[in-house]
Amino acid sequence: MDQITIKDLEVYANHGLYKEEKALGQKFLVSAILSLDTKLAGVSDQMDYSVDYGKVCHRIKEILTENDFNLIECVAETVAKKLLLEFSLIRKLEIEVKKPWAPIGLPLDYVSVKIKRGWHRAYLGVGSNMGDRMEYINQAINAIEAQDDTRVVHVSSLIETKPYGGVVQDDFLNGCIAIDTLKEPEELLDFLMDVEAQAGRVRTIHWGPRTLDLDILMYDDLVMNERRLTIPHKEMHKRLFVLEPLEEIAPYLMHPLLGQTITQLKEKIKEEQ
């Protein structure tokens, strides 16, 4: 991905843990590496296809001068999030905030915090087999869209399927949702569990009936296996009710462990039936 670099933008602002820092202010240096596709801008010579780095610099200055932060960690996080939300062509960025006058009582060039943030493409499975199934699923989509740091990109058709796991219960409505999000995987998991809870989801019977079920199927090409979360979803390649709606919105999505597309995984299950 192409990059636009802003190096050591100087801003005088009042941030710090000590009251003297907030009262007197000090110099901060902010650097940004913006990752985006500049091909169209380079070919057309039109600003519409790129990011105006002058506007970015002035926005960074506004963020630092119009807010009051204790930590430069929070300065960096706020700058990163606002730039990603306000400049739609930026896919990823790196922000470094330097504090050359850090009051530590020892000589130094500067103290800095550097972070990398960006948009991530995630695929979610959604299902319901209790009450007004369609309404619960629509509520989930609306809750996702209401997040300022998450965008719904595609929603598959819904299919009616028999329950999975051997528990006697009503049929499910199942589908898949593609999202772009700034949330990290466990942040996304916590948010989705909260949406389930708001829909009255109760976790009493494994693979039992539920008002709403939201699963992270894939997150970029990430592979992780933690206590609370496994990505890719460890059962997705075995479930037609996941693969069929997922194929509708991402047929060539590649499973990072199995090395096969969603279409190939679906066809494999059908051949084995």
Automatic annotation (TrEMBL):
SMART domains: FolB (SM00905). Its EC number is 4.1.2.25, 2.7.6.3. GO terms for molecular function: 2-amino-4-hydroxy-6-hydroxymethyldihydropteridine diphosphokinase activity; ATP binding; dihydroneopterin aldolase activity; kinase activity. Pfam families: FolB (PF02152), HPPK (PF01288). One of its GO terms (biological process) is folic acid biosynthetic process. Pathway: Cofactor biosynthesis; tetrahydrofolate biosynthesis; 2-amino-4-hydroxy-6-hydroxymethyl-7,8-dihydropteridine diphosphate from 7,8-dihydroneopterin triphosphate: step 3/4; Cofactor biosynthesis; tetrahydrofolate biosynthesis; 2-amino-4-hydroxy-6-hydroxymethyl-7,8-dihydropteridine diphosphate from 7,8-dihydroneopterin triphosphate: step 4/4. Residues 206-217 form the 7,8-dihydro-6-hydroxymethylpterin-pyrophosphokinase domain. InterPro entries: Dihydroneopterin_aldolase, FolB_dom, GTP-CH-I_C/QueF, Hppk, Hppk_sf. It catalyses: 7,8-dihydroneopterin = 6-hydroxymethyl-7,8-dihydropterin + glycolaldehyde; 6-hydroxymethyl-7,8-dihydropterin + ATP = (7,8-dihydropterin-6-yl)methyl diphosphate + AMP + H(+). Keywords: ATP-binding, Folate biosynthesis, Kinase, Lyase, Nucleotide-binding, Transferase. Belongs to the DHNA family. In the N-terminal section; belongs to the DHNA family. Catalyzes the conversion of 7,8-dihydroneopterin to 6-hydroxymethyl-7,8-dihydropterin. This is Bifunctional folate synthesis protein. It comes from Anaerostipes hadrus.
